[in-house]
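Hey, I'm writing a tutorial for new members on how sequence and structure tokens pair up, and I'd like a real worked example in the thread rather than a made-up one. If someone can provide the structure for the chain below, I'll link this post from the tutorial.
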Amino acid sequence: MPLRETLTNTWDHIQGFLFPRLREEIGPLTAQHERLVIVLEVARIEAFVQMWPGLPGRPPQDRHALARAFVAKAVLDLPTTSSLIERLAVDAALRRLCGWERASQVPSESTFSRAFGEFADSSLPSRVHEALVKKTHKDRLVGHIARDATAIAAREKPVRAVPAAPATPKRKRGRPKKGEVVAQPEPRRLELQVGQTLSQMLADLPTCCNVGTKRNAKGHTTSWIGYKLHIDTADGDIPISCLLTSASVHDSQVALPLATITASRVTNLYDLMDSAYDAPEIRDKSRAFGHVPIVDCNPRRGGKAQAEAEARAKRCAGYELAEDVRYNQRSSAERVNGNLKDNSGGNHVRVRGAPKVFCHLMFGILVVTVEQIMRLVT
């Protein structure tokens, strides 16, 4: 069944059956309640939560309800788990949607914390997001994939980088002496990734909390403590794949593993990237997947002046470059970054450690993905 027909049937079921039945059961629904219902109905996160009933000892709290509650936290953009518990105590409709009949059934904050640790260890929101993308995009041809990274501020102590001892002693500048053997420099991470598998590339990427620095459009340098979230975004502002690294990792070092993950989930035609990804290894990888890379030239590589001169000459001839028109679609990556931070918890990271930070962000990415997919038919 085509994607549009599938989404139309889902939307008709939600509007024509689910909403009227919920209003009859639990009362009036606000706009936020309806958003949560749509996300829960499309994502079906309960199917990915593991439960082991009948084991000896005290039975665990309902992990299905806890998983739905963390989705609600991202939908409502609540900053902390304690604020989520307070909202569940006074909002009967929200509490019923998550799976608790009475306020006394809502678990304590420590129970929420333990369940969140389990969800982070099992990569629950990542697995739900991957299944959703593969289900909705298996028969869809994506025009553009916009690749970008965004800073994630965290409330934890950064790990100090220990300078590695040089493998060979530093030689003096100038022409080498006759017969002197000059040691070759260590290969860059991007060069090593060309011959590595996906698991090897992911294992080599640092994920500890440290200090990141970037320069904005006005040339001012800003820094933050935390991480960096790398996102591939498809047409319609739909996140396809995400990776979390240390804040100091350069964007180009995550391009190859991210492109490999995206290629296993969707079929696209163009890869849109800014000047941070201007490297021959990245362009070659994109072409190897059968894509057309459209990458902004990096001035440090000396190619921007020539490219601008050629583009200026062609525009003077009376037409606009097709690459320039397509490159404008890269703004979808910026919109996803802003949507995640402003509306789905991206600015409220209160957990520590890369697995938990990534889990928190992926709950928000899951919400963004469902809402953008459903906008294709609404």
